[in-house]
Amino acid sequence: MPDRTEIDALIELMARLPGLGPRSARRAVLHLIRKRALLLQPLADAMQAVASTARECLNCGNVGTADICPICADEKRGNGQLCVVEDVADLWAMERSGVFKGRYHVLGGTLSALDSVGPEELRIPQMVTRIDAESVTEVILALNATVDGQTTAHYIADQLEHRVALSSLAQGVPIGGELDYLDDGTITAALNARKRL
Amino acid sequence: MPDRTEIDALIELMARLPGLGPRSARRAVLHLIRKRALLLQPLADAMQAVASTARECLNCGNVGTADICPICADEKRGNGQLCVVEDVADLWAMERSGVFKGRYHVLGGTLSALDSVGPEELRIPQMVTRIDAESVTEVILALNATVDGQTTAHYIADQLEHRVALSSLAQGVPIGGELDYLDDGTITAALNARKRL
Predict the structure, then answer these.
(1) How far does A29 lie from chain B, in Å, by closest CA?
(2) Three-class SS of residue A62?
(3) Contact in structure between B85 and B94 (CB atoms under 8 Å)
(4) What count of Cα atoms within 13 Å lies in the side-chain half-sphere of residue A150?
(5) Choosing among B5, B13, B14, B47, which should be mutated to test the A contact, i.e. which has the most A CBs within 10 A?
(6) Is residue A163 domain-shared with residue A69, that is, in the same domain?
(7) How far is residue B48's CA from residue B67's CA, in Å, rounded to a whole number?
(8) Both A138 and A92 in a single domain?
(9) Mean pLDDT of B157-184
(10) Through-space distance between the first and last CA atoms of chain A, rounded to whole angstroms
(11) What is the CATH number of the domain that holds B100?
């Protein structure tokens, strides 16, 4: 059907999104075509807007529409605390909790010998520069509790030893978590880090 | 973060796609922003192209970029067979199999007393008109094997009785299907429609 090429091209592009495959991309595109005015046109406009304005913050690596993101630009958030995360998604997750009032530093991944990701690929030098430039007193490592995440945390801790206060997120039972469903590692970590009441 | 409004707007729109929720929409948008040049911009362009060209075929209800879809426009497919489907997705599924050489008629749903969907909402009158106009000799009901689909099939069969040859897709064991995993209804249908070898 030569006539369907635009639609086929859209399906093919949609199928490349994480979480969508060829089948769900077809469903999504049909849904979009049915809601041309209400959803497809606004979505095309929103994508165009993001495509032309989105950029990474030159300072922390957060994603926004300015060279310096609102968090880095906010004087009040320069309180000496720097939260180091792997990814922008982790930064957004921290921001949703609303509990952290300092600034972030997005590494853009984890150290990985296999994928030959070294400190330079990870914006670790920029982090060291920021520690002096922004008078950081405490670095909070909010890296994922995976092998790669913890390897990276150890490396950063080695680099920054004696220069700033270092901490990492507590490990333990998640709120609402049931022991029966938790893995051994989490239970071990929660027991080792038990708190006196 | 006032600065992130365009990105937030995009996430909100993406979350309205079938198969995506707020979390997977965030993941998809971050992925898009990382691949601005390779994916986000082409996707924005493809959506814009579909938004401005996609329309329903005035004859059969298929989705394409012309007022009359390529299947309806193709003389060779006017072979007297008309395949009635609920939805454009079903038409595409039939076309992928490549086995049907006639034309389609997309109902746009099923009859439903609860949702007050009557024959007029379903393009059934247009189907009756087409049967005369296109000298249809056989109507093949390829409706879903659900209660609503079968109700609609019965209604159409009543309407067309004695006017054309009527058939519906065979029911039975799907290719590659294992009896152990099939529901009782399918096994019953397959046994009742058993074929002599």
Answers:
(1) 9
(2) coil
(3) yes
(4) 5
(5) B47
(6) yes
(7) 19
(8) yes
(9) 89
(10) 71
(11) 3.40.1360.10
CA distance A138 to A157: 12
Q: Which residue has the tokens 């096994």?
A: B187
Query: Over its length of 197 residues, how does chain A's per-residue pLDDT go in tens digits?
Result: 445 688 999 999 999 999 899 999 999 999 999 998 899 999 999 999 999 999 999 999 999 888 999 999 999 998 999 999 999 999 999 999 889 999 999 999 999 888 888 888 899 999 999 999 999 999 999 999 888 999 999 999 998 988 899 999 988 888 888 888 888 888 888 888 888 88
Indicate whether A126 belongs to any domain: yes
- Look up the domain containing B161 and give its range: 75-168
How many domains are there within chain B?
A: 2
d(CA B30, CA B22): 12
- Reported confidence tier of residue B166, pLDDT bands at 50, 70, 90: very high
d(CA B81, CA B104): 8
Contacts of A76 in chain B (CB under 8 A): none
| Chain B residues whose beta carbon lies within 8 Å of the beta carbon of residue A65 | 3-4, 6-7
Amino acid found at B183:
D
CA torsion sign for B58, B60, B64, B68 is negative
B28 pLDDT higher than 60: yes
